[in-house]
Amino acid sequence: MQLNPGQRLRSASSEAEVIVIRAPKGEVHLTCAGAPMIPFEQAQAAGAAAPADAPPLLIGKRYCDEEGRWNCCAPAGSGAAGRGLPGAGRQGRQALAGLRLNGAAMNILTLLEIVAAADGDRVALGDRDTGLTYAGLLDLAARTARRLDGGEGTVLYATTASPAFPAALFAAAWTGRPFAPLSYRLAGDPLRRLIAAQAPALLVAGRAVLDLAAEVPGVTGTGPDDLLRTAATMPPTETAAPQDPEAPAVLLHTSGTTGTPKVAVLRHRHLTSYVLESTELLSAAPDEAALVSVPPYHIAGVAGLLTGIYSGRRIVQLPNFEAAEWVRLAREQHVTHAMVVPTMLARIVEVLRADGGGLPALRHLSYGGGRMPRPVIERALELLPGVDFVNGYGLTETTSSIAVLTPQDHRDAVASADPRVRRRLESVGRPLPAVEIEVRDSGGRPVPQGSAGELWVRGPQVSGEYAHASHLEEGGWFRTRDGGWIDEDGYVYVEGRLDDVIVRGERTCPRARSRTR
């Protein structure tokens, strides 16, 4: 039986479950809720006799050897010593034989549980010296979940990024409630209508938005700092997180040409599929840090948080983007990774050209959310020659990126004198391995290679669903409403929206936007 990331295996003789996860260098690991991970070198062993050197399973606690020690990141039976587990004993021990596939059932909280169990002392969020560790973040989520226990409806988040963002997201997942980040930049009446549409709900927001929603029936409000202060006084929840991959995890608002908001539904299986297919567990070095400056209501804000956590990369939050502050914080926190939209990169380039200081720690810069002007990316490549650039293309409904222009693609394009190769800087790269992209005409028929049309996509991370209605076509295909074409080498070129919508993180209608905070 093939072991695939995200699959759950259940022992035939007990109720214990383990989860298959992907790790660096193609290793296969098994873990269970609240337990560390141990590699399992026989990828085909499930459903057959366990190898003689396979470690026994201590149900519900640890994978350990005869001495009760955990061999982490070493093949089973290799003798590599792990950390001691005093008092583990042998009670409840089971052989790995008899495990059977029990379907892909993951909650996004599981991603945090796995990393907290594997390397809980690593800093997850904030300053490299004083920030919140993965174990601390899991504990904060558990206490915030206790704060949410007994409540109903959606957890709304309508403020800037802070530690309250991941705490509320994971607490919502822990209590089986959907999490809906809202744009605090919307004008008063449209924002009030979005809040009212989600009632009953708990609203986490700044004072202006809380005042706006004060009279909305069924909505209880709290500030982000108040949420964390209250949670800190509570014991961690004792409720087990539901493991329903079909449950809505995140609700994101997006608008069409009329400006009428639609609620895109991302279920747990969409988000976990994206993370497991695009990110390797704890692949980040201990010194790596990601600067996140996109707002929580942007799909990149949600996806970036989850992939950063699963990779083990420390997250540095910038609540509001300002180019000089972005550069200052990147230097101060030794930021190695970041994601920006084209307009942000253009302003960052201006600051770097003016002060000449560079970004000595930066290794990886991804961009997306709009078409990148070639002069901007060429200037960025010139100013940051040692940085790996990645262009990602995706939509809210596709759970973030579905195509990527890799660092090597950037280097090849810059070094080439061939116009066809150099043109790739204007592309969004090629589809992710688990994603298919086709170009079709207005009647939904595939067009010849190189011809323009509408981009259609399908894959396990593609939701294509709005509240109360799926917009997936036959065969699981989703119409992106983006025009584009694909060249002979498989590079995707996005020409723009087929409707009249301003894209600024989220899709919005011009008349629906102002600066409510």
Task: Detail the topology: elements first, then pairings.
Blueprint: E1 7-11, E2 17-22, E3 28-31, E4 38-39, E5 57-58, E6 62-63, E7 93-94, E8 99-104, H1 108-119, E9 123-125, E10 132-133, H2 134-148, E11 154-158, H3 164-174, E12 179-181, H4 188-197, E13 201-205, H5 207-212, E14 219-222, H6 224-232, E15 248-255, E16 261-267, H7 268-278, E17 289-292, H8 299-311, E18 314-317, H9 323-332, E19 337-340, H10 342-355, E20 364-367, H11 374-383, E21 388-395, E22 400-405, H12 407-415, H13 419-422, E23 430-431, E24 436-440, E25 453-458, E26 465-466, E27 469-470, E28 478-486, E29 492-497, E30 502-504, E31 506-508
Parallel strand pairs: 11-12, 11-13, 13-14, 17-18, 17-19, 19-20, 20-21
Antiparallel strand pairs: 1-2, 1-8, 2-3, 3-4, 5-6, 5-7, 9-10, 15-16, 21-22, 22-23, 24-25, 25-28, 26-27, 28-29, 30-31
Mean of pLDDT = 79
> Distance N terminus to C terminus?
53 Å
Structural class: alpha+beta
Rg, rounded, reads 23 Å
Strand order of the largest sheet: 18-17-19-20-21-22-23
Q: Total number of β-strand segments? A: 31
Approximately how much helix is present in the residues?
25-40%
Overall body shape: globular
Uncertain residue ranges: 10-16, 21-28, 30-104, 500-517
CATH topology of the domain at 119-125 and 132-267: Rossmann fold
How many helices? The count is 13
Could you give a short account of the major beta sheet?
Answer: 7 strands, mixed
Assembly category: single chain
Strand portion, in percent? 25-35%
What's the CATH first level of the domain at 119-125 and 132-267?
Alpha Beta
- What is the level-2 CATH architecture name of the domain at 119-125 and 132-267? 3-Layer(aba) Sandwich
